[in-house]
TrEMBL record:
Protein's name according to its UniProt entry: PhnA protein
InterPro entries: PhnaA_N_proteobac (IPR013991), YjdM_C (IPR013988)
Species name: Pedobacter antarcticus 4BY
SUPFAM superfamilies reported in the protein's UniProt record: Prokaryotic SH3-related domain
PANTHER family named in the record: PROTEIN YJDM, PROTEIN YJDM-RELATED
Domain PhnA protein N-terminal proteobacterial: 6-52
Domain of life: Bacteria
Family matches, as SMART domains: PhnA_Zn_Ribbon
Amino acid sequence: MKLEEQIQQRSENKCELCGSEDSLRLYEVPPVNGSTTDNTILICSKCEVQLEKKEELDSKHWLCLSGSMWSEVPAVQVVSWRMLNRLRNESWAIDNLDMMYLDDDLLAWAKSTGDHENDTTIDFHKDANGNILQTGDSVVLTRSLDVKGSTLNAKMGTVVKNIRIVEDNTDQIEGKVEGQLIVILTKYVRKQG
């Protein structure tokens, strides 16, 4: 029996974290040295984007950890422990962490990525309306901007396609206007689409 079939059977075709039956896929819990039933789980797309920090944490969604933390599957235990730590500003998460036990090997695995040390306040690049921006998005300028060191004036309403986020500054993105790569403040754009 293939790995995917084994995990689908084990999970009864439900997300092993929240129980959802929508948009399921296999997720290898890092760090991984080859996929096994012990280090791979079936998760939904909502859990995946939050695990991978592509979306702000929705603490209500993660109330499901109160049940999944008791799973016999090592990878589910590890992910539950990591997420409870990321949500440690919630009293229910602290209560669950106090009850949860991982043996030394599982605890070492859970701590190995350092993910548990990151708090819930992940900074995202957001447009003027609070929409999360990602590399490759298209944005519209909400005001005319003078480009420093240039005679270029980027007009309000200009569409900037295929932006790049500036990794170390959530207030800035990069994009081409009239063929010139410029840095744009996120508060002066809105996501197109």
